[in-house]
Specification:
Uridine Diphospho-n-acetylenolpyruvylglucosamine Reductase, domain 3, 5-stranded antiparallel sheet, 475 residues, Uridine Diphospho-n-acetylenolpyruvylglucosamine Reductase, domain 2, alpha+beta, single chain, 7-stranded antiparallel sheet, Alpha-Beta Plaits, 4 domains
Length: 475
């Protein structure tokens, strides 16, 4: 019996027929990333039902020296949950581990399995008049474990921070199969390193997150959502500053997109409509969270502020959502930008960040520079203006061959984008992680001391190199 066959036989004996499969048809959907940029091979797909099963399975992988590629909802953007083409690794899915372990309503905390889907978590806590203040377009498939492993951001970072800020306890299986249990949440704990923070954002290269304690926020009594048309990205920045000055405590989200993105979404969603009359170079979507009985007061303040901005011609047009349905329609437009742009054709996408105050200048400088150097391309930037996170897409020229263009000119474009980002004091990864897509650029551009520290940690915690190899950091 070959080593691969022996491993598969032991894995099936350990996890049972529901827990391990080598069936090519069952494996196939999970071998390609969401964007379709990376496709690999795997010995099998493991779907354990408990942390103990994960532990035993990882011990088995260590015994046979089989690499493990953890995968959540397979909605990542950088190929971080896709195996390589060698075919000697195994996919590890935690989608069967999707239960709430403990829910402390009065303490506003919940302990969940890593395979719980974000949208399901939202629904569970909302039933108790609470909320988990992190959301993103892929909430219907993204899992808690995946969100922790990539330190996901989303549209509420402006007020609540990234996933790192939401996690107060964590459980993970290490490379040797040991279970690291730090689920108990303490406001003060100075017993050395905060190891859970080391695991958050490590993309499954240091340990496999199996459970988490998350902090919750009170449910919004109401919200005020508005769509604003603007003449420039600088005008959007000026509006954000005004809102932060006058409605700081209520400001929850501030998203921007150019006219091209809105046009793409309206083609992608045939039943959707433009919230405003006329054409505008830029659009902003803003949300104010309201507590208690202050909804009308906040709405009145926002109406007054927007009226002043209109009179001063600082903004071109604006509409405040009349009801929850209209508010959801506004957010659907924003959440549909990525799939709409994907539908257009070949493109290279960059999830980058720059200092918040520099974001408008960066967009206005970097976009034309890329288009001038690569004729026929179109630069499209959208994202979270309040936290400096730019989704910087470059669309291929007409007639470009999908796959070929991304691997040719697309790579030169990405290198230039990342060079510009570094020159502006930014990061080549704001919220999607490094995965396999950016591992070479991280090695090229990141601080060498930081890289060496990451390599040292990786070697210390995973000396065999079996946890998600080829992702985040090369050793």
């Amino acid at each position: 019996m070959s080593n691969a066959a022996a491993f598969a036989s032991e894995a099936q004996a350990l996890l049972g027929p529901r827990g391990f499969t080598c069936d090519p048809e069952l494996l196939e959907p999970w071998l390609t990333d969401w964007r379709g940029r990376f496709t690999g091979k795997a010995l099998g797909l493991a779907s354990p039902a408990s942390t103990e099963q994960v532990s035993q399975f990882v011990k088995l992988c260590a015994k046979h020296n089989v690499p493990v590629v953890p995968q959540g909802g397979n909605s990542g953007m950088v190929g971080g949950a896709t195996p390589d083409k060698a075919g000697n690794s195994v996919l590890l899915s935690l989608r069967r581990m999707n239960q709430v372990r403990q829910f402390d309503v009065s303490g506003k905390q919940i302990i969940v399995d890593a395979g719980l889907v974000l949208q399901t978590l939202h629904e569970i806590v909302e039933a108790e008049h609470l909320r988990f203040p992190l959301t993103l377009g892929g909430k219907g498939s993204a899992t808690i474990g995946g969100l922790i492993s990539t330190n996901a951001g989303g549209t509420q970072v402006l007020r609540h921070g990234t996933m790192r800020a939401q996690v107060v306890g964590i459980e993970a299986v290490l490379a040797d199969g040991q279970i690291f249990d730090a689920l108990t949440a303490l406001k003060k704990d100075n017993r050395g390193f905060d190891l859970k923070q080391l695991l958050i954002g490590s993309e499954g290269t240091l340990g496999i997150v199996t459970g988490a304690t998350l902090k919750l926020a009170p449910a919004m009594a109401d919200r005020v959502v508005a769509w604003v048309g603007l003449k420039s990205i600088h005008a959007a920045r000026e509006l954000l500053v005004k809102l932060e000055t006058h409605l700081f405590d209520e400001l929850e989200g501030f998203e921007v997109m150019p006219a091209h993105c809105l046009s793409s979404v309206l083609q992608h969603l045939p039943d959707a409509r433009n919230p405003l009359e006329g054409d505008h170079a830029w659009h902003a979507l803003l949300e104010l969270a309201v507590s208690g009985n202050s909804a009308q007061s906040v709405r009145d303040q926002l109406e007054a502020l927007l009226a002043e901005e209109l009179e001063a011609q600082s903004i071109a047009d604006a509409v405040i959502a009349a009801n929850e349905k209209q508010a959801e329609d506004f957010w659907l437009l924003r959440d549909s930008v990525a799939p709409a742009e994907k539908e257009i054709g070949p493109a290279v996408q960059h999830d980058i960040s720059v200092p918040v105050a520099k974001m408008p200048d960066f967009i206005e400088t970097a976009g034309p520079a890329l288009e001038a150097r690569f004729p026929g391309t179109k630069s499209v930037s959208f994202g979270h203006l309040g936290d400096g996170n730019v989704h910087f897409h470059v669309l291929a020229p007409p007639g470009a061959v999908p796959g070929e263009w991304e691997d040719g000119e697309g790579k030169l474009i990405s290198a230039m984008v990342y060079d510009l980002t570094s020159e502006w004091g930014g990061s080549i990864s704001a919220e999607h992680g490094i995965g396999q897509m950016k591992i070479g650029e991280l090695a090229r551009l990141n601080d060498p001391v930081s890289l060496q520290l990451m390599r040292s940690v990786k070697l210390a915690l995973d000396p065999q190199g079996i946890l998600n190899p080829g992702k985040l950091v090369a050793v």
